[in-house]
């Protein structure tokens, strides 16, 4: 006899569910009553879907031993079970639509009374904004339905079941369901009721669904508004003198909505039973002449991919966090968001409308794990799943259709190709012809209006820009975007300035979206921030989940600072010695009237004079030449430059007055090289050799002291703790330098002493630096000279043997054992910079604690180098470079940094380790994209570089 319970069959059913109301527009609060059911709920976790019967849904169930849980929230982040991180592998056997018997199931219970004045007439709707991954719902013991589609809203009519007091809402949530096969996004698997739960009163004659159609005719300057509503009513927009019936178009002069000029008109949809506020943005999106145009102009996306993330609450985001994301984007010159890979909390789109961001709204659909089986059985090509796909498309489009910020619908991400996608696209086009359709996974663009790629290298992007990439006839006529590029994992991404140059050179390339906005690290006592594998997952993808421009706590990483500079909307060039500046407006719509321009004149990195620069309110694309004043300061004998900044002239909704939008630096006179006369000679003592202020070990020639400063371990250094981009991803076809460097042994170089030579005016130490087991080596000579107070070191490096790899770095390291808490330098700052990440590195005089010189990448790796340093001071020691150098200081060695898996593994020691680098290998973005471009690679070749050391006497 076989027996299997049937009560949970819905979990593995491919259908989207049953019992829910048809999807409709989500609008901000109307004047109808609502009751939030967020807050503390009772919670019980079971190991399987059928471990418990449904008696808990009835009133009076004994919940004495149940836990408390916060809704919205994920139970695995509230002490029940653990999160799992996989990139594309399903964390369960792939046998669609079946899921494992071990299926963590959370029963949630909420008791509530209706407010005393909750109207008796009319109906009520219970709304879930997001539940992962499958829920069954009971109200007062009655089963009202079940649903899948985690990041989509589901509403149920419940008026007939409500009581004034003592209502029992029971929600059973299963972690795994057939729906999980459609939700294989690269992120944590986080079950729970993670978005709001709300009871909405629906007065008689209230609005059901409504569709705001607000287009803009850029030739005539006219907007046309039509609000379709299932329930007739009137549309009132006082600011435009509009008062028309629903369904009736009206055309009036308006100011259009764009991401740069997000003009919204407040209106109201008035029906017999309800007043629904409208926020109307007039704009027309079109595919015109092979380009994405808004209001008649081609736009350039300067975008990011945004997953919803909070380091403690996961994807349960509060309004402040959403606003913070939007403000951070606006302040960093970002103008577009792809809501990878699901519709976000609806409040996020309200913010995009209000502050101005172009949005690609992406459906909650990814089946990436099927790539492991050559896409066999992929649900998007199996018509049994088509109703679920159409349900997802409809829930996204219906919910979000009234947002002017949404200019493109995306069918989903990495779901292969198939008839289901075509069905979705056809349905979307039929419902909303006013936007374009995106999907990256089909290179033939059968269903889309945009050719999109992810992680294509620079050369390929250029070919696409030139139209030399081939492809189907349809594709060749489409605009191109990089829906993902510049993989921001760990240190990097490198090469974004090179991409931006391509974007700005070819009309067909309409920009890109950096992958991704924020690291998904989970705050954790042991690790600082946890990543994949930290919860004992049997399958996981490690720190691939930490690949954002923000650290998990939303601190901007250097990558975001770099991106802000690269995409700045105003270009400032010029000629420093001539004192002329050319300003170009790079906005697509806005003029420059919102910006003020400032200049400062700097001598050796210190501003000695500053003032305002008058720049005309240039229109988009226009340029003007302006003259800088004659500087009154005489910078002779010093290094001088202009810094010109474009700042917000007045505070805006997203930034304070004075906020820097764009800047440039124009050199006037060059950095004079430090000169040290060779007046002293080395003197051999009993144990020491002395030379000017320095003492060396007589046997090894190792530097011991400079004046009163103890120095240890000064030697050539070529190793850096490989970055995620150095390591690359295992599927990368090209050379991945991190593993190759380690294979060669660059992390275990041996230093052979060949000679210590005392000359008349120099101490010369000859060495050969090489790894065991290899013939390749670096013949290295240290030549020390002094003028009595200063000490000059010239390092000469000559590679020997076969060097087929670039070097990670080339320079010296030394340890300071005395107190050295702060560094001051004249060079690039304030943040780190590497050869292909240095756009935002501003020359100046900077100061920082050693602690703050570290960039806290969630997985420790090379970080914190300051570029173009002319002079650095730390621990009483001054170092000047010829040429300028990269400066790094940390309280652990490179080897300790390399060995660390988490930030908490890094324990500060007493010695401050300093790297003074002549060269650094570029960063690239090979953790999921191309490596460092050839011009940023550090080839092993003969090199010579010098440093001048002196003790600072205050
Ligand atoms: C893409 C994918 C993203 C993410 C990224 C790598 O292929 O669409 O979801 O996995 O790669 O971080």
What is the β-strand count?
58
Oligomer: single chain
Describe the sheet with the most strands. 16 strands, antiparallel
CATH topology group of the largest domain: Beta-galactosidase, Chain A, domain 5
Number of discrete domains: 5
Mean pLDDT: 97
* Uncertain stretches of 5 or more adjacent residues: 1-6
Structure class: mainly beta
**Distance linking N and C termini:** 92 Å
Bound molecules: beta-D-galactopyranose
Description:
- It comes from Streptomyces siamensis.
- It catalyses: Hydrolysis of terminal non-reducing beta-D-galactose residues in beta-D-galactosides.
- Helix 1 packs parallel to helix 2.
- By secondary structure, the protein is mainly beta.
- A hairpin with a 2-residue loop joins strand 44 and strand 45.
- The strands form twelve sheets. The protein has a 16-stranded antiparallel sheet that branches.
- Helices cover 11% and strands 37% of the residues.
- Bound molecules: beta-D-galactopyranose.
- Beta-D-galactopyranose binds next to loops.
Task: Summarize the helices and strands and which ones pair or pack.
Blueprint: E1 17-18, E2 34-36, E3 39-48, E4 67-71, E5 84-86, E6 102-112, E7 123-128, E8 131-132, E9 134-139, E10 142-148, E11 154-157, E12 167-174, E13 187-189, E14 192-193, E15 197-202, E16 210-217, E17 222-229, E18 233-237, E19 242-245, E20 250-253, E21 265-271, E22 275-280, E23 285-288, E24 291-294, E25 297-298, E26 301-305, H1 319-331, E27 336-338, H2 346-355, E28 358-362, H3 386-400, E29 406-410, H4 419-431, E30 436-438, E31 451-454, H5 458-466, H6 473-476, E32 480-485, H7 496-505, E33 509-514, E34 522-524, E35 528-530, H8 558-566, E36 570-575, E37 580-585, E38 595-603, E39 606-613, E40 623-627, E41 640-648, E42 660-669, E43 683-684, E44 688-691, E45 694-697, E46 703-706, E47 709-717, H9 724-727, H10 737-744, E48 749-758, E49 763-771, E50 777-786, E51 791-800, E52 809-816, E53 822-829, E54 842-849, E55 866-874, E56 877-890, H11 894-899, E57 912-920, E58 943-951
Parallel strand pairs: 26-27, 26-33, 27-28, 28-29, 29-30, 31-32, 32-33
Antiparallel strand pairs: 1-10, 2-15, 3-4, 3-6, 5-13, 6-12, 7-11, 7-15, 8-14, 9-10, 9-12, 16-17, 17-20, 18-19, 18-21, 21-22, 23-24, 24-25, 34-35, 36-37, 37-40, 38-39, 38-41, 41-42, 43-44, 44-45, 45-46, 46-47, 47-52, 48-49, 49-50, 50-51, 51-58, 52-57, 53-54, 53-55, 55-56, 56-57, 56-58
The structure holds beta-D-galactopyranose.
Organism: Streptomyces siamensis
Region (Disordered): 1-32
Enzyme class: hydrolase
